[in-house]
């Protein structure tokens, strides 16, 4: 069961990797980041590029090393770390953006769903090795 669930995780993560390059256009970063100093402007963009890498890495690991992730304590710990990544991102959505409008609520729901999907892998895999 864990292997089937991880396919969903591996499929979800590239979507975020494909979405993040749109930040420059969606948020007019070429224009709006200009008010930041050179270092802060660079930090924002580098963090976004590194997030793209993280999402791709999640997907590749979950696709190429499915058996290792679902079948070993280290793999389960790695998957649990991904659960925490998405759960904390959901919390950060509320803290930094609030839930007063439909868009932040929808984004929050996506992060919670992703955390739950990844958590289902941990629970299914952990049950196989308990």
Structure description:
It is a single chain. Helices cover 85% and strands 0% of the residues. The chain has 130 residues and is mainly α. It has one domain (2-128).
What are its keywords?
single chain, 130 residues, mainly alpha, 7 helices, 85% helix, elongated
Rg (C-alpha, Å): 17 Å
Mean pLDDT: 94
Biggest beta sheet attributes = none
- SSE order in H/E notation? HHHHHHH
In percent terms, what proportion of residues is strand?
under 5%
What structural category do the secondary elements indicate? mainly alpha
Can you tell me the residue ranges where pLDDT is under 50 for at least 5 consecutive residues?
A: none
How many angstroms does the end-to-end distance come to? 15 Å
Shape: elongated
Number of E strands = 0
Contiguous helical run count: 7
Query: Please, how many domains?
Result: 1
Q: Could you estimate the helical fraction of the residues in percent? A: over 70%
Q: What does the secondary structure layout of this molecule look like, with pairings?
A:
Blueprint (H helix, E strand, L loop, with lengths): L1 H18 L3 H4 L2 H4 L5 H27 L1 H6 L1 H25 L4 H27 L2
Question: What can be said about this structure in brief?
Answer:
This protein has 130 residues and is mostly helical. The protein has helices spanning 2-19, 23-26, 29-32, 38-64, 66-71, 73-97, 102-128. The longest helix has 27 residues, at 38-64.
